[in-house]
Amino acid sequence: MNGKKHSETGTFSPDGMRAEILNPFVHKLELDNTYDKIRTAIFTVILLPFRVIVICYLIVTAWFLACIGLYGLSEEDLRKKPMTGWRRSLKPLICFIGKMSYLAGGMAISIRGRQASRKEAPILVIAPHSSFLDSCIVYATRMSSVIVRKESMDNYVGKLINYTQPVYVWRDDPNSRQNTIKEIIERATSKEDWPQVLIFPEGTCTNRSCLITFKPGGFYPGVPVQPVTIRYPNARDTVTWTWEGPGALKLLWLTLTQVHSSCEIEFLPVYYPSEDEKRDPKLYARNVRDVMAKALGVPVLDYTYDDCRLIARAKQLGIPCASAIREISELRAQLGLDRSHLEVHLASEGLKGKKKWLNKEEFAQRLGVPYDINSQRLFDIFVQNSSGLVNFADYILCAMFLSLPHAPLSHILSCTFRLYDETHTGFIKCDTFEEIAIRVLGLCREDAQNTFRQVDLDEKGYITYEEFIKFAKEKNEYAFLFVSDNSFKPKTKPKVQ
């Protein structure tokens, strides 16, 4: 399996088989021992500056060549017809410089198999997508056309991306998806000598532990595609960039301070669709994914980009076990909890003197489900390692988040006040409000304390839900609480004065 064990969190395959696999959106990376820390520190001083200087020189050189090649061409010209003549002849040179920039950073790119011609396969399907360093595939495929958001072009690498004659995605255009698919179809079926279209069908980065759902956009043309796999067979995985894990700068720093890294690109045989697959792009996408998963030796999992958004939303709000929200949803469905609405009822009642901390048998009994492998897995996600018990209020809050996706967040907040009110009086003290604010409002402890003091103007030592809501309605930073669509995501956490 390509990809290390980054997380203890697993899930089930959609066919019901007990195939426990890893959460694809989590990557853990730490310098484990003193030797690694000392070596990284030394290479940061003596190796990193040299590599950065050389890489910058090569990138600027490639950018300069791209500027020359694009001189006199508008974006409309790039979308209207493929490059020819001397402009096209610059591509191999730019690709060579691009590969050299990776080599200067200590990463050797090896290629297996043969890249098919555009006539054989107008579309290249790349997976798994796990890193910003996957951009090396552009150079390895002789600058195939990428699919890129138009707003991503407003930076210094825009010229290099433009040189691939990309398919633009206009985020603000409500018809963007249909227009993108239409342009892919036109490119793939054109008689002109366009570059091959390069697609990452997963649509987001994973940790390579599995292949998630392939978007069908690149399969609508119904033409043959060539699957291409990317592996990073390194002792330390410093390239994986997921929703939960190290940031891009840390990964780049750790990669550039490795003595040597490697990337393996493999061109698989061209996949020719059947008539059924031509009629059903989703079927075509699933079957190509199966072929690539078999070549990689990894399972498949029906996660999507929307699942990433859900996880990001849950993390932003501080919902317990946010990174495992997709697995929790699956397990609740298998236990029938998503249909019973039992958790919503329990949330509306609060704990009312019931035990807060439960063992695995008590947890299943409280939910009215059998104690089996599914309830055990659900328990394991929420268990506190120090005690071996689950805070039942944490679970109910997470279940509420999943059960009422379109309800105003204020409704979930009202249930949270009841769940974490251990006195069952409706009077919430500062330490309890901190716990609530961290879990539902995404506040840090200091901001939660400041908010409590602003609500508790009489210095009673407690506040009520009604008092907080009255305060929140007067503050623009809490407007997101009253939006009747839980997919709304504020750009920043509330700033407390």
TrEMBL record:
Major site of localization recorded for this protein: membrane
Q: Which residues cross the membrane?
A: 41-73
What the entry lists under InterPro entries is as follows: EF-hand-dom_pair, EF_hand_dom, LPCAT1-like, Plipid/glycerol_acylTrfase
Tell me if Cell cycle is a UniProt keyword of this record: no
Please give the PANTHER family that the UniProt record associates with this protein. LYSOPHOSPHATIDYLCHOLINE ACYLTRANSFERASE (PTHR23063:SF52), PHOSPHOLIPID ACYLTRANSFERASE (PTHR23063)
Q: Per UniProt, what is one GO molecular function of this protein? A: O-acyltransferase activity
**Domain EF-hand stretches:** 443-478
Q: Which domain of life is it from?
A: Eukaryota
**GO CC annotation, single:** endoplasmic reticulum
Annotated protein name in UniProt: Lysophosphatidylcholine acyltransferase isoform X2
Q: One biological-process term from Gene Ontology?
A: phospholipid biosynthetic process
The compartments listed are:
Membrane
Q: Which Gene3D superfamilies is this protein grouped with?
A: EF-hand
What keywords are assigned to this protein? Answer: Acyltransferase, Lipid biosynthesis, Lipid metabolism, Membrane, Phospholipid biosynthesis, Phospholipid metabolism, Transferase, Transmembrane, Transmembrane helix
Pathway listed for it is: Lipid metabolism; phospholipid metabolism; Phospholipid metabolism
Write down a Pfam family by its short name: Acyltransferase
Q: Which family does it belong to?
A: Belongs to the 1-acyl-sn-glycerol-3-phosphate acyltransferase family.
